[in-house]
């Protein structure tokens, strides 16, 4: 059975200065030798654990990846353009980071036989025929980002089939938690919290009936650690909670927790927006022993409290 603790390993976290990558590095740094490759396009130096060795560089550059990969036996590949909007604005740049970057990592890992855990996404499913979404759901992405992540997900499987490389693809649903970017491309939770805390109305795209499965970054980190030790390689797993809320319910929850007026305004939905998303996590439960531990109310309350530490209420 997979274990959620790693010790004495030498690992590479690509994108280790980013939101998810930096939490992964925090979980690993004390008991493992951790290397990071990050180009700091969205990552921040202040998020990087002081115990990690940082290489500033492009994950698409084989020389950069080769330099580090020779010393590691495990790679958590998080580096990517993680923004759907940016992929729509500039598909070529996004394709390069997300597809070429993944291929470069897998190709270098093949030469040293390092296991690679690839960050895939719920965006590969597009608008699902039904929820909850199992891994067998047809994949019809509605954005360049979704197409790119689907290619990365397939490459992970293919490198296992063709070259017997240990790979696992983790299909993250809507991840949230401390350090998530507060920029133009921020997630709906960060946006709502920013708006509510600064006394602005909460902006909902469409009528707010769209549902999402919000998974706390601590649970995503645990899924990665379990994937690092599982013997069920060459597989893809949904990483969500199996629960969903509507965007309108989320807005009310945020208003409640921030004691704000809760004024909501509706704007046009963006093209390609998904109506329903909720993960079926039974495969990850069965094969990895994955169990989400942070409920949405607790995770949001911790963000509102400021230090991001999740305490049960
Ligand atoms: P993020 O933008 O915070 O992190 C990405 C990191 O990769 C950043 O530090 C960035 O500087 C770095 N990076 C980008 N391009 C690079 C390149 N060419 N070379 C080296 N470094 C590069 O995003 P995140 O939310 O932490 O996402 C991490 C991974 O999880 C991504 O692969 C993303 O597609 C995936 N994912 C995220 C979510 C989510 O809800 N946040 C959902 C599904 C999948």
Automatic annotation (TrEMBL):
<dbReference type="Pfam" id="PF01370">
    <property type="entry name" value="Epimerase"/>
</dbReference>
<feature type="domain" description="NAD-dependent epimerase/dehydratase">
    <location>
        <begin position="11"/>
        <end position="240"/>
    </location>
</feature>
<dbReference type="InterPro" id="IPR001509">
    <property type="entry name" value="Epimerase_deHydtase"/>
</dbReference>
<protein>
    <submittedName>
        <fullName>NAD-dependent epimerase/dehydratase family protein</fullName>
    </submittedName>
</protein>
<comment type="similarity">
    <text>Belongs to the NAD(P)-dependent epimerase/dehydratase family.</text>
</comment>
<dbReference type="InterPro" id="IPR036291">
    <property type="entry name" value="NAD(P)-bd_dom_sf"/>
</dbReference>
